[in-house]
């Protein structure tokens, strides 16, 4: 799946996917509404933002991101994955427009 961005439809990408037998899914341009990783990035960012003291260097940020990633609640991840049916249903209902998720 991709979000129809120009870089995702470059001939070299198409050729590679085809050579590997990877089929593309049709996907709306509002795919962040459907992509659970976007919610995880948000949760990760919020967790790092709440740290005190905040990361002061790139290395501190890298460590903070890794630590917070390990601490993410697996129940939240499971919920995001199981919510895909609802997300897709809502997206179809609004014909691909933004969904309030």
UniProtKB/TrEMBL annotation:
* InterPro entries, sorted: RNaseH_sf (IPR036397), Tc1-like_DDE_dom (IPR038717)
Look up the domain of life of the source: Eukaryota
Q: What is this protein called?
A: Tc1-like transposase DDE domain-containing protein
Q: Which residues form a coiled coil?
A: none
Q: Give GO terms: molecular function aspect only.
A: nucleic acid binding
What Pfam families does the record point to?
A: DDE_3 (PF13358)
Tc1-like transposase DDE domain: from which residue to which, for each copy? 3-50
